[in-house]
């Protein structure tokens, strides 16, 4: 693709030789040498100075204030520049082209309703009264138990299991070995007997949701565990029964929500964080990595630590910790003198 053609597609301006052929997109953070035929995204002075290799870049996707640092560039507006970068990455993405067909080794119940233009690969199981929307793709080994509903253009990667009566909206992407709708952790001990509490609810997932590999979302005890629209999970996220996760939420890897947690719209949970049962993370709040929330958060407030506290307060606590050895030493000295 010529530099000028890519610029036209992006609505950008050419700086340098518009006839140059671009063969790919590369990343300055990678250890490989700079490729003179690839385009590099550099949209901030901080990023430019961080990477000495930037001086060797021949073709850049950049903003006006940085364009003179490169012999050839596509100049894009600063606002929304990352969206233009995403568009370029998408142009160079090379996904396998799977044929729209149903494998003869798939097992599909006669009562299941399958939409148009679906791809169902080898050894997929589709149970009784399942509804599958148009344009869905199911990779090998997917299991849809009875009563499951899958919205249009949803992709389920290999080994995904959707338990009975759970419902997914449209345009979802669920990565390999994720399990949606397993029983919640409900038990009751009485008179020496451990009773299992039946989990008769389900899981309801909205539209444009992505879940990473090996996530687990438990079904509700009575009603529904819910995941809102445009919410994104990293790998190895666990959502306990009765949880309500809102719209536009990010949950990073190895994060755990205990039962009956509410995560309101726009929250961000960083990696290996945890939220205790029955708590609410208020709209726009942040739980930083390796933190454990043990009380409801405030709106648009960042928390970290175990137990997690507001970030500014926790910074003061951590700063004070370094003073403790000297304070103890001084205390013991005065105690001895007295």
- Main sheet overview: 10 strands, parallel
Number of strands: 37
Strand fraction band?
A: 25-35%
Q: In what order do the strands lie side by side in the largest sheet?
A: 6-9-12-15-18-23-26-29-32-35
Q: How many H/I helices?
A: 5
CATH topology of the largest domain: UDP N-Acetylglucosamine Acyltransferase, domain 1
Look at the structure and name the CATH superfamily of the largest domain. Hexapeptide repeat proteins
Tertiary shape:
flat
Radius of gyration: 26 Å
Q: What is the second-level CATH architecture of the largest domain?
A: 3 Solenoid
Helix content: 10-25%
Q: Tell me the name of the CATH class of the largest domain.
A: Mainly Beta
General description of the model:
The structure is a single chain. This protein is α/β, with parallel strands linked by helices and 338 residues long. The protein has two domains: 3-92, MurE/MurF, N-terminal domain (Udp-n-acetylmuramoylalanyl-d-glutamate--2,6- Diaminopimelate Ligase, Chain: A, domain 1); 107-314, 3 Solenoid (UDP N-Acetylglucosamine Acyltransferase, domain 1), CATH 2.160.10.10. 15% of the residues lie in helices and 28% in strands. The protein has five helices and 37 strands. The strands form six sheets. The chain has a ten-stranded parallel sheet, with no helix packed on it. A nine-stranded parallel sheet has the order 7-10-13-16-21-24-27-30-33, with no helix packed on it. The chain has a six-stranded mixed sheet with strand order 25-28-31-34-36-37. A hairpin with a 2-residue loop joins β19 (187-190) and β20. 33% of the residues are buried. The mean pLDDT is 97. It comes from Leptospira ilyithenensis. Pfam families: GMPPB_C (PF25087). InterPro entries: GMPPB_C, LpxD, Trimer_LpxA-like_sf.
């Amino acid at each position: 693709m010529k530099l000028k053609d890519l610029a036209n597609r992006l609505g950008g301006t050419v700086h340098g030789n518009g006839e140059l052929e671009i063969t790919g997109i590369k990343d300055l953070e990678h250890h490989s040498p700079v490729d003179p035929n690839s385009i590099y995204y550099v949209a901030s002075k901080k990023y430019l100075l961080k990477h000495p290799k930037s001086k060797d870049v021949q073709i850049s996707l950049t903003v006006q204030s940085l364009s003179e640092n490169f012999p050839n560039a596509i100049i894009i507006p600063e606002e929304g520049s990352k969206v233009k970068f995403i568009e370029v990455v998408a142009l160079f993405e090379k996904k396998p082209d799977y044929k729209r067909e149903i494998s003869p080794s798939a097992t599909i119940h006669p009562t299941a309703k399958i939409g148009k233009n679906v791809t169902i690969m080898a050894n997929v199981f589709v149970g009784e009264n399942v509804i599958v929307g148009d344009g869905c793709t199911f990779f090998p080994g997917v299991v849809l138990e009875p009563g499951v509903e899958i919205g249009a253009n949803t992709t389920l990667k290999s080994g995904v299991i959707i338990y009975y009566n759970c419902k997914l909206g449209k345009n979802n992407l669920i990565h390999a070995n994720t399990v949606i709708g397993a029983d919640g952790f409900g038990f009751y001990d009485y008179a020496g007997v451990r009773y299992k509490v039946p989990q008769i609810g389900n899981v309801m997932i909205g539209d444009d949701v992505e879940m990473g590999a090996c996530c687990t979302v438990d079904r509700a005890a009575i009603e529904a565990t819910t995941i809102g629209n445009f919410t994104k999970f990293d790998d190895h996220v666990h959502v306990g029964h009765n949880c309500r996760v809102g719209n536009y939420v990010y949950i990073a890897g190895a994060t755990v929500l205990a039962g009956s947690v509410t995560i309101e719209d726009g929250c961000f949970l960083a990696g290996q964080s945890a939220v205790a049962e029955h708590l609410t993370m208020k709209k726009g709040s942040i739980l930083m990595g390796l933190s454990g929330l043990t009380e409801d958060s405030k709106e648009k407030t960042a928390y970290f630590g175990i137990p997690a506290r507001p970030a500014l307060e926790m910074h003061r606590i951590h700063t004070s910790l370094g003073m403790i050895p000297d304070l103890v030493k001084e205390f013991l000295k005065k105690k001895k003198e007295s």
